[in-house]
Specification:
4-stranded antiparallel sheet; Clavaminate synthase-like protein; 2 domains; RmlC-like_jellyroll; alpha+beta; 259 residues; Jelly Rolls; JmjC_dom; Cupin_8
Length: 259
C-alpha cells in the first residue's frame, strides 16, 4: 500500500510475513471479522509464488489444475496457481500485474475497481521508496499487536513505480486527467470467474459470508509475447512484443504530461 509519512513523503509498504499454523490463522481471520471494533493487525494467508501447488498442495485437488479456455487462448499452462484467504478488512491498493490473471471466487465476495493501461495519465504513478512492516517484538511465537508493527526502508534500497491515486478518493493525489477516467466496478460472488488482463490497473476489497472469511484462487498465465521468459524472473524479466511496447509508451506519455 502507499503510505503518507509524517514529513509528507510517500512510501510503498509491503506486509510483514511470518509462518503460522493454518488452523490458528483461519480462526484469527474469522474472529477478527466478527469483532472489528478491536484494533488488531490484519492478517491474510497468501504468497504469490505458486503456493497452491506447493505450500497449500493438500488443497490443490479441490480446484481445477487449469482453466481450459485460458490454456487454449494463451497456449500456456498456468505459471502459478495462488491461494488467498482473508477477511473484509484486507484491501489491495491500486496496482497492475505482469501476468494474465484468471480470478476465481470460492467463498465470500471480491469487489474490483478496474482501469485499462491507457488510464496511466490518471493514476499518478510515482517512483517511491519500498518499505516493509517488521515487528519490534523479537518473540516469533508471541501474538502480533498493532503497536509492535513499524515499517522500515528496504535494504538494499528499492525504488518502486506505483500508482498513487485512489479512484475511491478521487481528490487525493489526482492528476488533471483523473476525472476523465471511468473505472469499471465488478463484484465476484462465490463460483464466479473473471479474466483480468495483464497490465490492467485494479484495486480489490472483499466481503465475507457466515464463515467469517473470504477465499479465492487465481491462475497466472504468461502472455504469448512473454513465453520465453521463466516464472522465476517475474520481477526482472525483459519485456518484448507490441503489447508491452504500447503499455510502456502509454506510461511514458503519462509521465511527460504530468511533469
Amino acid at each position: 500500500a502507499v503510505l503518507k509519512e509524517d514529513d509528507g513523503s510517500l512510501s510503498y509498504v509491503k506486509p510483514l510475513e511470518r509462518l503460522e499454523p493454518f488452523d490458528k490463522v483461519i480462526r484469527y481471520i474469522s474472529e477478527q471479522e466478527s469483532n472489528q471494533e478491536k484494533a488488531t493487525p490484519i492478517k491474510y494467508a497468501q504468497t504469490q509464488n505458486d503456493n497452491l501447488r506447493n505450500e497449500y498442495s493438500s488443497l490443490f485437488e479441490d480446484v481445477p489444475s487449469d482453466i481450459p479456455f485460458a490454456r487454449i487462448a494463451l497456449r500456456k499452462n498456468p505459471e502459478a496457481v495462488n491461494f488467498w484467504l482473508g477477511n473484509s478488512l484486507s484491501m489491495t491498493s491500486l496496482h497492475k500485474d505482469n501476468y494474465e490473471n484468471i480470478y476465481v471466487q470460492v467463498r465470500g465476495q471480491k469487489h474490483f475497481v478496474i482501469m485499462p493501461p491507457v488510464a496511466a495519465a490518471a493514476v499518478n504513478e510515482q517512483s517511491i521508496s519500498g518499505t516493509t512492516y517488521t515487528s519490534t517484538n523479537g518473540d516469533e511465537e508471541a501474538e502480533l499487536k498493532v503497536e509492535d508493527l513499524k515499517h522500515t526502508l528496504d535494504e538494499p534500497e528499492l525504488i518502486v513505480p506505483v500508482p498513487t491515486w485512489d479512484p475511491d478518493f478521487p481528490d487525493v493525489r489526482s492528476t488533471p486527467y483523473s476525472e476523465l477516467v471511468k473505472p469499471l466496478r465488478v463484484t465476484l460472488n462465490e463460483g464466479d470467474m473473471m479474466y483480468l488482463p495483464a497490465q490492467w490497473y485494479h484495486k480489490v476489497e472483499q466481503s465475507c459470508g457466515d464463515e467469517g472469511y473470504c477465499c479465492a484462487v487465481n491462475y497466472w498465465l504468461v502472455f504469448p509475447d512473454l513465453a520465453p521468459f521463466p516464472f522465476a524472473a517475474l520481477y526482472d524479466m525483459e519485456f518484448g512484443g507490441s503489447f508491452w511496447a504500447s503499455n510502456a509508451f502509454a506510461r511514458d506519455i503519462a509521465r511527460a504530461v504530468n511533469n
